[in-house]
Design a protein that fits this description.
By secondary structure, this protein is mostly helical. It is built from 20 helices and five strands. It is globular and about 80 Å long.
Length: 522
């Protein structure tokens, strides 16, 4: 008997960027396991930076290819949305790794020498004495990036969930590794893990309902069944879509699924907060774009009211709660919630070009976010005794930032650029981002939501410029010092500030490139 065999065709070229990142993550694990202790950190830094740079180069090539011929390979879709989101994610991660790798001039860094040491224990004292520093955070960041890169490309329910977990699990660990205020850091990680598991339950239940509706595991299959349906089972489809959206909206910190955001952003090491705030938003919004435009858009009128309520709640909660914050990390956390609300307006608009505008907005937000949290790592508590200076942890209380412009004009100037971008001031990337997403929402007949968004945007400017007033128009705080970085954080801040200004002055090339972003359905 002759048995016919078929060989599956693997799209190696399309998968190359993801394979580079995940292969680099495995290599980083091997470095951490087998390299001599004194070489682990420099090798880990080198591997992670080279891997992300290589991914940027390969994704630039794939962008040229996919812009002409978008492709779908069974459960993995390579289209301009996928490659554009992956390219931005690689750039974000490269900049974040510069901040993660820096240990500043006093060589303390943001991470515990041994995160497993009990705070205040003899083990921790011994670790500090020997200046021992674990470096597994580089492997964890690369694994998380690998999950993020698959997230917007997934056409399968199983692949989407696996990508979600690969993205999230390393972040749960990284949130618990802060050098100082370790118990707060561990509490933040536990909250993130528990609430993340709860959101994943909604996510999985929604997928189960979609499977029950369509009999398949692919979203494109659900779409085909949906277009041929008589409407008798639409309630099951709608329930599944809503539950999946709950899981995705949790990741972007949209209200009322935002409760984890302030505590996790505050407790996590600041470099990880910056990476998480920027990269997770990029991956999650790219996935929401695909899911919403492919499936949820079929129920535009059914979802208009609940999605509008979520968008308004997100903008209002982020704005009002941010006004009363006295800690800069919590203020930036509520700022991120407000920005998620602004971006949701473009997602809901369903107009041509809105997907590219969402990617532009998140890129602009990411540059300002990574730069802001990088600056937080350099502003420290400090006490002087004669000629000696004892440097403590990050000075995150807003009143400790008083007079920063006199202590460090360059750092304060960079923070000013980032805050102006958050506020949407002209000549910054944030202004262009808000202009294009609000324009899309207006074109999508969501003018009343745009009006609320504009009011919230004006109100958020108050708490951004409260920080500006403190930095430039008050006397310096006596117990605050600005320390120098080893160089990597300074590079990241400079690149983020320059990118924020360039995208605000000459946004044309990037907007033109992202105008090619389209969502391909095989």
């Amino acid at each position: 008997m002759n048995v016919a065999t078929t060989t599956a065709s693997v799209p190696w070229a399309s998968l190359t960027p993801v394979l580079i990142v995940l292969g680099g993550a495995v290599l980083a694990v091997l470095v951490e396991s087998f390299a001599p202790a004194r070489l682990r950190r420099p090798l880990g830094i080198g591997v992670s930076l080279v891997v992300t740079a290589a991914a940027i180069v390969v994704l630039s090539w794939r962008w040229v290819v996919v812009a002409d011929t978008p492709q779908g390979f069974d459960e993995y879709i390579e289209d301009p949305l996928t490659v554009g989101a992956q390219l931005i994610l690689a750039v974000i991660t490269f900049l974040a790794l510069l901040v993660i790798a820096d240990r500043t001039q006093i060589r303390d860094g943001a991470f515990a020498g041994q995160p497993s040491d009990r705070p205040g224990s003899v083990d921790e004292e011994l670790t500090e004495k020997k200046r021992y520093q674990r470096s597994e955070m580089f492997a964890l960041v690369l694994f998380s990036l690998g999950g993020m890169m698959v997230f917007p490309a997934a056409d399968s329910m199983i692949m989407l969930f696996v990508a979600l977990e690969v993205m999230s699990l390393p972040l749960y660990i990284l949130c618990a590794t802060a050098r100082r205020r370790r118990q707060l850091s561990q509490e933040a990680a536990l909250k993130y893990f528990i609430l993340g598991a709860f959101a994943s339950a909604f996510f999985l239940m929604g997928m189960a309902l979609l499977y029950g509706y369509s009999g398949g595991l692919k979203f494109s299959g659900v779409y085909k069944v949906m277009t041929q349906s008589t409407g008798e089972m639409d309630w099951l489809l709608l329930a599944g879509i809503v539950m999946v959206l709950v899981g995705l909206l949790f990741k972007v910190g949209a209200a009322p699924f935002h409760a984890w955001t302030p505590d996790v952003y505050t407790g996590a090491p600041s470099p990880i907060t910056g990476f998480m705030a920027a990269a997770v938003k990029m991956a999650a919004f790219a996935a929401i774009l695909r899911f919403y435009q492919v499936l949820a858009g079929h129920f535009t009128w059914d979802l208009l009211i609940p999605m509008s309520i979520i968008a308004v709640l997100t903008m209002v909660v982020g704005t009002v709660a941010g006004l009363v914050q006295t800690d800069i990390k919590r203020m930036l956390a509520y700022s991120s919630i407000a920005h998620a609300g602004f971006i949701l307006l473009a997602v809901m608009s369903l107009v041509k070009g809105s997907a590219g505008h969402v990617l532009f907005y998140v890129l602009a937000y990411a540059l300002a976010t990574i730069g802001s949290f990088a600056a937080v790592t350099l502003v420290r508590s400090g006490t002087r005794s004669g000629d000696s200076l004892e440097v403590g942890g990050e000075a995150t209380a807003l009143d400790r930032w008083a007079g920063l412009g006199k202590r460090s004009p360059l750092l304060a100037g960079s923070v000013l650029v980032f805050l102006m971008s958050f506020a949407g001031i002209p000549l910054t990337s944030g202004f262009i981002g808000k202009f294009v997403v609000f324009s899309d929402a207006f074109a999508g007949q969501l003018g009343w939501l745009v009006a609320i968004g504009l009011l919230c945007s004006v109100a958020t400017a108050f708490y951004y410029f409260r920080v500006v007033r403190l930095m430039f128009f008050t006397e310096p705080s006596e117990n605050t010092v600005v320390i120098k970085s080893e160089g990597l954080t300074a590079i990241a801040i400079a690149v983020c500030a320059l990118g924020t200004i360039l995208l605000g002055i000459v946004p044309g090339p990037v907007l033109s490139m992202l105008s090619n972003v389209a969502i391909f359905l095989p």
